[in-house]
Design brief:
The protein contains 5 helices and 12 strands. Strand 8 (about 215-220) and strand 9 (about 220-230) form a beta hairpin. Helix 3 (about 90-105) crosses helix 5 (about 195-205). The chain has about 260 residues and is of the alpha+beta class. A 7-stranded mixed beta sheet has the order 1-2-3-7-6-5-4, sandwiched between helices. Strands 11-10-9-8-12 form a 5-stranded antiparallel beta sheet, with no helix packed on it. It binds biotin.
Length: about 260
């Protein structure tokens, strides 16, 4: 599988030499974190054929059956403060859309902040994690984890996900996981985190949450609101029915559509 991924990846891609492939991991993010803590360089890529404990945002799990999806994490080491990386999940979302576009010929949409969506169903997700150097206050490393449902038929999803999940195969776009993996590696390698306004402008055009009525979930609290804007840091600006506007952060809040997942 590693050779197949490399066969699709440009000979010029500087991340070719730091690709680690595993048949099974608990989580590619967890493995990438361990490698980063042991000094693995910027651009180290961890790919697994299956994950036994694939993780999502806010403590959720990510279904990761063998050979059915793409499960990938990358170590990035931008020399900056954590505040300068608030848009990382959005940047990774744009990169993931471009990779699907290149491999499958269509572009998914993004549900704020980290879900890839096709026809109102979840096609994949992104989990970013940061480690900050206690002495310098700078980012030591960030892990960008991406999972994309590739070859699943509906029965491959756990029953509780069948109404909200989809895959490229189920969407009629059969794609080789190795090709999609290579496209993801290239798109993440090409990601320019320094141009925040341009990145966020791109994210906004792909984001289906903007302009929608949404249910804002914060712990046990649920409130209806209208999604009016996104900041250049990737926070969502919502207006509640009493007219109050609030900027909500993806670290604490998730949103659902009023009539379903999207
Ligand atoms: C979410 O749905 O909230 C995000 C899902 C992210 C899943 C990917 S799969 C590769 C990487 N390893 C993980 O454990 N999670 C991410």
């Amino acid at each position: 599988m590693k050779q197949k991924i490399l066969s699709y990846l440009s000979a010029e891609c500087p991340w070719r030499d730091t690709l680690h492939w595993y048949s099974t991991l608990d989580s590619t993010n967890t493995k990438a974190k361990a490698l980063a803590a042991a000094g693995a360089p910027h651009g180290t890529v961890v790919v697994a054929d299956a994950q036994t404990s694939g993780r999502g945002r806010l403590g959720r799990s990510f279904s990761s059956p063998a050979g059915k999806g793409v499960y990938l994490s990358v170590i990035v080491r931008p020399a900056c403060k954590p505040e300068a990386l608030m848009h990382l999940t959005c940047a990774a979302g744009v990169a993931a859309c471009k990779a699907v576009e290149a491999a499958a010929g269509f572009s998914p949409q993004l549900k704020w902040i980290n879900d890839l969506i096709f026809e109102k169903k979840k096609l994949g997700g992104i989990l970013t994690e940061l480690s900050v150097n206690g002495k310098t206050g700078l980012v030591d490393y960030a892990i960008v984890g991406i999972g994309i449902n590739c070859c699943q038929q509906m029965q491959d999803f756990p029953p509780e996900l069948r109404s909200i999940a989809t895959s490229l195969f189920a969407a009629g776009k059969a794609v080789s996981p190795a090709l999609l993996t290579a496209n993801l590696i290239q798109a993440l390698c090409d990601m320019d985190l320094t141009n925040k306004p341009a990145l966020m402008a791109d994210y906004r055009t792909r984001c289906i949450t903007l302009g929608q009525d949404v249910l804002v979930l914060q712990g046990d609290v649920k409130q209806y609101a209208h999604a009016v804007d996104l900041t250049d840091d990737g926070a969502l600006v919502v207006r509640f029915s009493n007219g109050n506007t609030e900027t909500v952060n993806a670290g604490e809040v998730s949103v659902r559509g009023m009539y379903g997942y999207v």
